[in-house]
Automatic annotation (TrEMBL):
UniProt feature coiled coil, ranges: none
Pfam families: GAF_2
Protein name, per record: GAF domain-containing protein
Residues in GAF domain copies: 160-323
Membrane-spanning ranges: none
Length: 445
């Protein structure tokens, strides 16, 4: 029976280094270790090109090679007959391999030595198993297809985005055993991602931001491709990304930076783009303190789950634009106590409550418009539709997820124990609850 490439993907995880055999034009053989073998599709693999060495010279002279790979679970030994096709020096595959290579280099103490020059694409001509004793495959911790089905069915019943994300994290934990996850939404106009929900971290980090290209999440978002690493990598660690981000913004920017959450001892990371109609909606990110926690199969199911998630987000977004009939207005709260200072900086729409930073950007503009209306007219009831049309907020366009901004704002208010709350009152409707008198200070540009 022919061995299919996708059935031996565990051999390509790099746990046991593979070897490649080539021959020179005069027939002299050469064998070398491989840093990385990447599964591309059922007929192709990519090998890391890091040095112009004997292997490289041989491949350019004769495009045929044999690669040996070993299954780390069973010890099964395979030989792959390959034909070199081309080298990619940019793009999603190159970036994916670059990030993974950084992880391998860090794990093996070779940081600064390994540098990816290209992703060599090979056609797999044949796969044969080398005769020998093997171990039985280990039992799987869960049936991934059954878990995917259960998780997607749960998502279908979500009434709104907040509920959708809660079901997502519950499903990841219950069906996949994933304890640490976060969801970031894409702000296309700003070219940044902002954290709207997290699970499993000491600090939620809701409201934190990351630019395209920063860290594993930023690179995966920029390239619109999932990126998975199985070892700690300093090059793409979040701490580095955050520090670099702060350095670019200058010291003054640190006061309005919310740290991106993340495990200090993260060993495995998987960032998956959430797409809808080929547009980036956001990023789903999971991580673990275990080495090699996520394999190719985990990546496949989370990509499928992210597809369902993206469609769900878009559908719920459209539903929120058609608000339910306004419910009877609740009696307004009677603010009491000392006034709450709400200071708004028009330069970046950052908002401070009693001198403490709360939020900035679109979410900050939303809050400022709400408190302005409250102070000027006593208004407490609002709808998403009218908010979207409000020129003071300057939403980028209809594709922007206003619901996500409101969730972000509501959670920041709760986290800061602010005497302001945003409460949902129906589909596409919400209420501003104020417990203390407001004292507004607008700082123009």
């Amino acid at each position: 029976m022919k061995i299919r490439l996708e059935s031996i993907r565990a051999c390509l995880e790099g746990v046991i280094p593979g070897t490649i055999a080539t021959r020179a034009a005069d027939g002299t053989p050469n064998i070398a270790y491989l840093s990385q073998i990447e599964y591309v599709d059922c007929e192709h693999v990519a090998l890391s090109y890091q040095f112009f060495n004997t292997t490289r010279r041989n491949i350019l002279a004769s495009p045929y090679a044999r690669v040996a790979a070993v299954d780390p679970h069973t010890g099964a030994h395979y030989r792959l007959s390959l034909q070199y096709l081309r080298t990619e020096e940019s793009g999603p595959l190159f970036e994916r391999m670059k990030v993974r290579l950084a992880g391998i280099a860090s794990h093996t103490g070779m940081s600064g030595v390994f540098r990816l020059l290209g992703a060599d694409i090979y056609r797999v001509l044949d796969i044969e198993q080398v005769p020998g004793d093997t171990l039985p495959p280990p039992p799987q911790p869960c049936n991934l297809l059954a878990s995917l089905r259960a998780c997607t069915e749960s998502l279908c019943g979500a009434p709104d985005l907040d509920g959708l994300l809660a079901r997502l994290f519950d499903g990841l934990q219950t069906h996949f055993g994933i304890e640490h996850a976060m969801m970031l939404m894409f702000d296309e106009a700003a070219g940044r991602l902002y954290t709207v929900a997290t699970r499993g971290y000491a600090d939620s980090g809701v409201g934190s931001e990351i630019a395209l290209g920063d860290g594993v999440i930023g690179v995966a978002a920029r390239e619109r491709t999932p990126i998975r690493i199985g070892h700690f990598t300093a090059e793409y660690s979040y701490g580095r990304a955050i520090r670099d981000n702060m350095a670019r913004n200058g010291v003054d920017g640190i006061d309005t930076e919310i740290p991106l959450p993340g495990l200090a001892d993260s060993r495995s990371q998987l960032a998956v783009p959430v797409m809808a109609c080929r547009q980036l909606v956001g990023m789903l990110y999971v991580e673990s303190t275990q080495d090699l926690r996520f394999g190719y199969d985990d990546e496949d199911v989370l990509v499928a789950l992210a597809g369902q998630l993206g469609a769900g987000i878009r559908l719920l977004q459209q539903m929120q634009e058609t608000p339910e009939e306004a419910p009877p207005a609740a009696p307004p709260m009677a603010p009491a106590g000392r006034p709450l200072s709400v200071r708004h900086y028009a330069e970046n729409d950052s908002v401070f409550l009693d001198g403490d930073y709360l939020i900035k950007g679109v979410a900050g503009a939303i809050l400022w418009a709400l408190v302005r209306d409250y102070v000027d007219s006593g208004r407490c009831e609002f709808s998403n539709r009218e908010l979207r049309l409000d020129r003071r907020i300057r939403l980028p366009d209809l594709s922007d997820n206003l619901e996500a901004r409101l969730i972000l704002l509501a959670r920041r208010l709760v986290e800061r124990d602010a005497p302001l709350r945003i409460e949902k009152t129906g589909r596409g409707r919400f209420r501003l609850c104020v417990r203390r008198p407001l004292e507004l200070v607008d700082v123009p540009v």
